[in-house]
Design brief:
This protein is mainly α. It is built from five helices and no strands. The protein has helices spanning 3-25, 51-88, 93-121, 135-166, 173-177. The chain starts with a helix and ends with a helix. 25% of the residues are buried.
Length: 180
């Protein structure tokens, strides 16, 4: 298997997934208000679906999917690929430590994004008016994750490209690079 090409493919798909999440978060119907309540205003009873509800549902599905895929990609690298590279190429130790540090930072940013999504999904009381639960907050988090992710991907591809291109590793792609 051409591991460098596989990594670039995974990175390309994750970039595209992030673009899709950004597009969804930027939809006109995603406004800063809670999901529809029951016809009588009872939040315990579902009311008629609105374009706003659909936009929120799409954002949650796409964003949670992106977060899960990115996390699983980095977990696979940390548990399978990087230990193998360390064993075969000890000179990559500092690079792999830096990449793991990036993974940790990205995981922190993803967790922060998911907390913001939780507030967007079901804002109540003051949280419904809280700027932190707004579309703009989601977009800011996506920009932060995207910037660090892009920098990380470029560094990883540059530093590991030659080693991965020559890597003869008999392993499952998903186990090495995640589900994407």
């Amino acid at each position: 298997m051409a591991w460098y090409d596989e990594m670039k493919t995974v990175h390309r798909r994750l970039r595209r997934a992030l673009d899709l999440v950004r597009e969804t978060a930027d939809e006109e119907n995603l406004v800063d208000e809670p999901l529809a309540d029951g016809a009588d205003g009872d939040p315990g009873r579902p009311g008629p679906r609105t374009p706003h509800d659909d936009a929120h549902a799409e954002l949650l599905v796409y964003c949670r999917g992106f977060c899960t895929a990115l996390t699983r990609h980095h977990t696979s690298e940390d548990t399978t690929l990087f230990p193998e590279l360390e064993r075969r190429h000890p000179e990559l130790g500092a690079t792999l430590r830096a990449l793991r540090q990036d993974h940790s930072m990205i995981a922190y940013l993803v967790a922060d994004l998911e907390q913001t999504l939780d507030r967007v999904a079901r804002p109540t009381g003051d949280a419904a008016r809280d700027q932190g639960a707004s579309r703009e907050a989601v977009l800011r988090h996506l920009d932060g994750v995207g910037a660090i992710m892009e920098s990380h991907f470029r560094y990883e591809e540059k530093e590991l490209g030659g080693v991965l291109a020559a890597l003869d590793l008999d392993a499952d792609r998903e186990g090495v690079l995640g589900p994407f």
